[in-house]
């Protein structure tokens, strides 16, 4: 079940990144092109976040931060909104967030 949730989350994240122009079918996050300042991809890179499987050192631990948008601009947030992001992604609660990634 957990794998299914992570797969669904990863798919939703990929769609969100494509819609915001942070990645492309031919480029991707590792395309070598500079990341747009303030883009989800730039924030993910800057804050060492992940958008699919959690890094080994985070397995079994809750993330302390996240990259989310509550309006049009994504931002790096603290534990309060990270908790809401976790609820939204894993419990299906609607907190009106666009969740891009989780961070340490």
Describe the structure concisely.
The protein is of the alpha+beta class. It has one domain (2-24, 36-103). Helices cover 37% and strands 14% of the residues.
Shape: globular
Mean pLDDT: 80
Helix content: 25-40%
Tell me the span between the first and last alpha carbons. 24 Å
Count of helix runs = 3
Briefly note the structural class of the backbone. alpha+beta
Protein name: DUF732 domain-containing protein
Signal peptide: 1-27
Keywords: Signal
Explain this structure to me?
Residues 1-27 form the signal peptide. Keywords: Signal. This protein is α+β, with helices and mostly antiparallel strands and 104 residues long. It has one domain. The chain is 37% helix and 14% strand. It is built from 3 helices and 3 strands. Mean pLDDT is 80; it is low at 17-28.
